[in-house]
Design a protein that fits this description.
With 110 residues, the protein is mainly α. The protein has two domains: 57 residues, no CATH class; 45 residues, no CATH class. Helices cover 75% and strands 4% of the residues. Strand 1 and strand 2 form a beta hairpin. The longest helix has 39 residues. The chain is flat. It starts with a helix and ends with a helix.
Length: 110
Amino acid sequence: MVLHNKLKFKTIGNALFFNGLAMFAFITVVLIPFIYGVYITLFKWDGISSEKKYVGLNNYLGVFNDKDFWISVGLTLRYVLIIVILINVIAFALAYLVTSGIKGQNFYRM
């Protein structure tokens, strides 16, 4: 029974150690910078000076009322749709070439 408990503790300890390292990396590299970035958007700040003026959600209202922002969103969505469709068509064509039984199909299986 003691051996079973030691093995169970060792397994749980390893899981906590490795997951803890991954969580630490995720928190320091992704989560904290994301939260700080959202925090910064609530201020009018040039990024250099120490003076920050709190403006709340006015930055977001300004962006959503900007015509150029919506043009950029439209262009981005159009680009994403075209690229996703194009990549899938190419992928299906290559998959068909590899599995269709045509002469020289092993050439495509690199």
